[in-house]
Amino acid sequence: MPTATGSLVPVVSESPDVRHSAGWFILCCVTLMMSPEWSFGFSDSTMVFIPAGEFTMGTPAGTDGLADEHPQRFVFLSSFYIDRYELSNAKYFAFVSATHHRIPENANAASTLWIHGAPMPGIDQHPVVNVSWTDAEAYCRWAGKRLPTEAEWEKAARGTDGRRYPWGNQWDIALANSASFWAGRTIEFDSGADWDAFWVKGEGAQIAKSKGLNGEVLTLPIGSFPTSASAYGLFDMAGNVAEWVQDWYDPNYYKYAPLDNPVGPDRGAIKSMRGGSWLKPAVSLRTSDRDWGTMDSRPSGTGFRCATDAF
């Protein structure tokens, strides 16, 4: 990704050749600055530039959106960069190796996918899971980045046309790694009992046992669903793993949040997640869906991606 770090130099000669060269240089610079991959002093080919502007955030009351998504608002965001892919085990291993940060682990030993301080064979390009919000924040800070805000995440997933899913407005079980993908039909859970009946005692448990990593975890390599990329070209913005974001979670935040660059409540007890995961029902894969977890929880269905300012 090209980076511009200098400034334009005034023309001091009247030579036609010099004037032509200077004009060409200025034209190139202007063209470069208009490119969605250009910003002052930043370059990372694995990130996507999201331009400044308004987008539709949340869902209107009276629709099938959930209560914490109301009211729907037009939110303005400054430009930013966000990772094209969920963070892989390979990249997290580089971080752990360099910093001696703790490895990803789950309270259920079978859901822990790292062995002897490294990812188990064959999962380098799977998204890292079993990381807490503090783990995710530490990685992004080490990489010179940060976690995206909820608003940034939703714009990157939804685009400016208010789409219901990253790929468009029609649900398709074949376009994301979710409970529906594995079951071969649309799955919804109306209660915790429904969740247990599928994932603990029923069909989902059998699928995980036969096809999952360690017989437990059903992540897939990042970018496994290329036709479901968002309007900005981001992969796995629905399913595979849910993603930690920067904000504290407040179910009523949209009722009082600013309309310019919201960054979440000033304080809270739990952190926000977005995007749904391999464990989740269809409703959780909508671009407007909100989820949450305690800062120190390390779920087998949660990972992250990073963002950074664009200036």
Report on the architecture of this protein.
- The protein folds into 2 domains: 1-8 and 15-41; 47-309, paralog of FGE (formylglycine-generating enzyme) (Alpha-Beta Complex), CATH 3.90.1580.
- Helix content is 23%, strand content 13%.
- It is built from 7 helices and 11 strands.
- A hairpin with a 2-residue loop joins β5 and β6.
- α6 runs parallel beside α7.
- The longest helix has 19 residues, at 16-34.
- The chain is globular.
Attribute tags:
7 helices, globular, single chain, about 25% helix, paralog of FGE (formylglycine-generating enzyme), alpha+beta, about 300 residues
Q: What characteristic shape results from the CA principal axes?
A: globular
Describe the main β-sheet briefly.
4 strands, mixed
Q: Which ranges are low-confidence, i.e. pLDDT below 50, for 5 or more consecutive residues?
A: 1-43
Which series of helices and strands comes N to C? HEEEEHEEHHHHHEEEEE
Question: Which structural class fits the helix and strand makeup?
Answer: alpha+beta
- Measured as a percent range, the helix fraction is 10-25%
Radius of gyration, whole Å? 21 Å
Number of strands: 11
Mind telling me the CATH class of the largest domain? Alpha Beta
- Biggest sheet strand line-up: 9-8-7-10
Quick recap:
The protein has two domains: about 1-10 and about 15-40; about 45-310, Alpha-Beta Complex (paralog of FGE (formylglycine-generating enzyme)). Helix content is about 25%, strand content about 15%.
